[in-house]
Every structure is written in C-alpha cells, then in structure tokens.
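Side project, low priority. Logging it here so it doesn't get lost.
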Amino acid sequence: MTRNEEPMPQLARLEEYLRQDPGNDGLQAEVFDAALAGGKRELARRLADEALARVPAHPGWRHRCALLMLAEKDYAEAERELERLVSEAPEVAVVRHNLAYALFAQRKYEASSLTVRPLLDSPGPDGATAWALWLRSQHRLYRLKEALEAFRSVLARIAISPEVLGVASLIAAEAGSLAEARAWSERALSGRPDQMEALAARGTVALAAEDAPKALAFFSRALRVNQHDGRIWSGVGLAHMLQMDLTGADQAFAQAVETMPDHVGTWLAWGFCRLVSNHPQEAREAFEKALELDRNFADSHGALACALIRLGEADRGRDEMELALRLNRGSVSARLAQTLLSGEVADPAAMLRLGRRVLEQQRALLSPR
C-alpha cells in the first residue's frame, strides 16, 4: 500500500460524517488534514476556501492554507502567509517552524536559521524538529564548527531524535570529527534505518578509511531515500574514484552537479576525473565552472593550469599556476601543474587522489546564491 493510499479509508469516513454535519468546523478541519496527508489537494483546497469564506481571518485555516502551499511547493506564497501568522502569534511553535521550513526550501538559510532558533529550547518534539532544521541551515551555511559546538552543548540534556542525530552526524563527518560521526550515525540508524544524513555520514566515514565498497553501500541506501541529493552523488563519485572506476565516477559527478550546481569541490573533482580519463577539454570546462563560482580558490586556478598544459596551452597554464601559488603557496593542484610543465609524466592515481582531497575539503561549501 502506498503512502497516499493509507489515509483514504479514514478520509472516506470523515467525508461521510461531514456530509451529515456540514457546519462542523472541527470535522471540516479533520477532513482537510486527512486530504492533505493523502495527496488530495483539490479537496483540501475546496475545504479551505469554504472555511475562509465563512471566517476570512481564521488563523487555523490560514495556517492550513499555508501547509497546502508548502505541499504544492509554492514556498514564496507560504512564506508570506506564515510571516503574517507569526507576527500575530509569535509563540505558536508549529507556525514558526513552518515559516523556517519555507525559508529553507527557498535556500534562505540565514533567515531560516534565525527564525527557528527560538524553538531550540522547546521541550519534546517541537525542540527536536527545530534542532533538525537549524542544523541543516548551519550545514548549508558551512558553519560546521559552530553547529557541532551547539549540538554538543545540549546532547546530554535534551531528547534527541534519530533525525537530529543523523543531521549532526553528517556535519561531524564533513568537519572531520569521524568518531562522533560514526557514533551519532549508528544511534540514528538504530532508531531509523533510512535516515538519509546518517547513511551519508557512514559513507563519508568509510571514504575516510578508503573503504570504497562500504562507502558505496551506504551511499546507495541514502540514494534510495533521496536520489536528488548532490552531496550523496559526490560521495558516490569519490568512492568510484577510489576504485579507479572513472566511468562510474564521471556518471556520479554528472548527477551531483545537476542537483548541486553551485558546489566548487564537485566541479573540481569531476574535472580531475575527466583529466585522468584523457578528456582535457572537458576537464577545462569543469575547472572554469569552478572558477565562475569562486575566483579566489587557489586549487581551481591550479587545476585549470593542469588542463591548459595538457591541451598544449603552456603559457596560459603557467599564468594560472602562478596565480594559484600567489593565492596559496601550498596549492597542491599548482604543484601538479609544475610537474606537468617540467615534462614529467603525471601519475593518474595521484591526480585522482588530488581530486578526492579537494572535494573532501570543499564538499559543504555551497554557494549562498
């Protein structure tokens, strides 16, 4: 039985009760909730319109309309209605949380973080859902250290859901706190085996141990939960690179940039994969895309230098290499470009290791745009 089918027997009964008692506002609200849960949005819309025609300013029905907008992915309109509701009743936790979610869905991560933060001290489920959303916002803002410090400070004194543990474990994994990532992800998965971030964290921990088969197993489970998550596809690409499976890595990185086009590290790792596959022009295009996103990252200039040298444009390659070294004397991609300029044969495995290293350093650097 599918998710959408489950509420329908209850919905049918509630609709029959409502036909017998059409003026019952509470019953109408129950029918709306069951219809929305069952994906019957036209019915939900009709019920909301009827209720608001009777009482236009009813906060409960206005909130239900906002929930319908969220379900329809009309996040901007939901944000406007939820902002009005929060201004009228700022103490209502569920409304504030839904506003924060609408902001998050529009990639307004700073605003989402500030909106949901007052709920972090709420007891029970309200606090747990608030922590999950706040941590996700911090993750997107690349505030890994701050998020971990805040989470550690409350870990022993609040009820933590598997979802919160899963999000925290992924942040820990990307921050290099692998022991915490492993422990928290194991706790999350013991309570919820399909928690996506916990699965991604376990895959990241396996990558750090250079255990590609285990990493792929965890990332594959995560993709069954959400096949549109660019971070997970990047992890799949890294695992294939670790196995020197360039075709598999290329396909995974293509998926990653489709769903996460503003991520510098993924473009760089994909470029090195293409460079080792003897496709220097495609590598150049990937490196240039990385530079469009951040012109001050030294390894992007060094990577482009490598592609230009392989394409026979040694002078331009030297210019990019020198720029990379001015930005960062320790740029590993610039050092690789020096090796290519000297005429030495580049080690394909070394190039792939470099690509993995760059992506591991940059994976969470999502553009705020």
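Brief comment: Residues 124-140 form the longest helix (17 residues).
Revisit when time allows.
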